[in-house]
Specification:
about 55% helix; binds fe (ii) ion; 9 helices; single chain
């Protein structure tokens, strides 16, 4: 399983937005925890779920509409492959697909890609958008207990412990937004 800490730091080296911003480190960490929780039900590939969490917004140029950031993230994943992580072609293809397509708001075919997209959508509460069940791709994400758990964390912009514990990053309260 890839170690996410060096990947997160490599992402931050080239990240042009505030690390504590809407699409920054705490979002990646909540997406990771959302994805891991969903994967317990969906059986999604955990390598893809974990890598997606820290890479999918890595190349955003702004915090608003940035249609091409999914494809740029996929290309960054390609550049990082072999340097910061090693995965099979099958796993990489899913990661690439998940990154490219996450910006379109669609419903994926593959359950791992679906899980990745839902892990991201479940964190929409941080920008005041309540995730609608009909726009989620997995039954797991539509379950009220999961939706409430994830949306509550998103709305309060909870900083997961793993940010400090596993990634060694301090996010002061003042720069969360
Ligand atoms: Fe995201």
């Amino acid at each position: 399983m890839p170690d996410l800490k060096p990947i997160v730091h490599a992402v931050l080296e080239q990240y042009v937005l505030p690390p504590g911003g809407t699409h920054g480190v705490t979002h990646w960490a909540r997406v990771l925890e959302n994805g891991l929780r969903l994967a317990q039900s969906t059986g999604a590939n955990l390598e893809v779920v974990r890598l997606f969490a820290v890479l999918h917004d890595a190349c955003r140029m702004n915090e608003g509409i940035d249609d091409k950031h999914g494809r740029r993230a996929a290309e960054l994943a390609n550049a990082f492959r072999g340097k910061w992580f090693t995965v099979s072609d099958e796993v990489f293809d899913l990661l690439y697909e998940a990154c490219v397509g996450h910006t379109d708001g669609g419903i994926a075919q593959n359950v791992t890609v679906r899980t990745c997209w839902d892990s991201d959508r479940l964190d929409l509460g941080r920008v005041g958008i309540c995730p609608e069940p009909k726009r989620l791709c997995t039954d797991a994400a539509k379950r009220p207990e999961i939706l409430k758990w994830a949306d509550g964390r998103a709305c309060f912009q909870v900083v997961p412990e793993l940010v400090k514990r596993d990634w060694g990053i301090d996010i002061p309260d003042g720069i969360r937004r």
